[in-house]
Amino acid sequence: MCRIPSLCNRNLRNKFAPKTQETLDTFLNPYPDRKELQEKLPMRKALFFFALCVVSASAGATAYAAPSGSEPPKTYTNSIGMEFVEIPAGSFERELENGEGFRTEFPNDINKVLFGAKAILSKPFYLGKYEVTQEQWAAVMGNNPSTFQGQTNPVNGVSWNDAQEFIKRLNQKEGHNRYRLPTEAEWELAARGGADAKRMYFFMDNPKTWKEAARPLDAYAWFAENSGGKTHPVGKKKPNPYGLYDIYGNVDEWVQDWDAELPADTETQDYRGPETGEFRIFRGGSWDSYAEYCRSGVRLSFGPDYNGDDMGFRLLLSSE
What we know:
Elements: H1 5-15, H2 24-28, H3 35-49, E1 75-77, E2 83-87, E3 90-97, E4 113-121, E5 125-128, H4 134-141, H5 160-174, E6 179-180, H6 184-192, H7 210-217, E7 252-258, E8 267-269, E9 280-283, E10 300-302, E11 311-313, E12 316-317
Parallel strand pairs: 4-8, 7-11
Antiparallel strand pairs: 1-2, 2-5, 3-4, 5-12, 6-12, 7-9, 9-10
């Protein structure tokens, strides 16, 4: 993702360190056998190294609430105080890129963000109202790996594998096996908050420029323009219509799926991704992401042992 210049060198060391043994070319082009991505690689490298200068501009944002007449969402609080909100079954339209594929890592041209294939989630589920905090992490793991210390800040600096160990221990603590990471389809359904299926952000009509999105995003997310280069306590910004806080920004959120091209079918139901892979997907953007990366449809990935200081997670609690 694009980084502000002052963070560039640090993030290069973090993101391409020997933890994953991946090179810059591998990250920017995770599918080297795909000719079209090979052709885009020089442009994508350039976009990575030259961060976009996003300047706040006035935007005509519209507030979108939960559907009228809907009942308040059901909630659940577990033994360590983690709050969960019920997300109803539903559907949304996935973002496409140039009408050709589903990779949206470098959306420098807002006009190339298109919508197409429908994703259906047939069952409700519970999702964390907040990102997992440092206090909650310590209650289960007995340590705190976070770079930016604060008991109510989201835990950061955790890999996908670290999140799995936390989930394993929490399930053991509560005597069931219902906690897991959301699939990326579940995460996106929840992030959209019941808003129009073709909306990039749940809080406004689709912007004409990324600058137009940055100003209203300030009310909902900690991102590159307002974070001061660090995470912040969860729940201090406005929630989405389902009552989820920091679904955009603060920390990138690991999801369950391996990275792969999404199915080309016009419709998928309860999509869970491939059984194996090299990179794990994360969603939502973080404290050092620009507005174009803090939206519902962007898909990014790293190796499952990557634990950069922008990485955290949010838990799903299954209904069964």
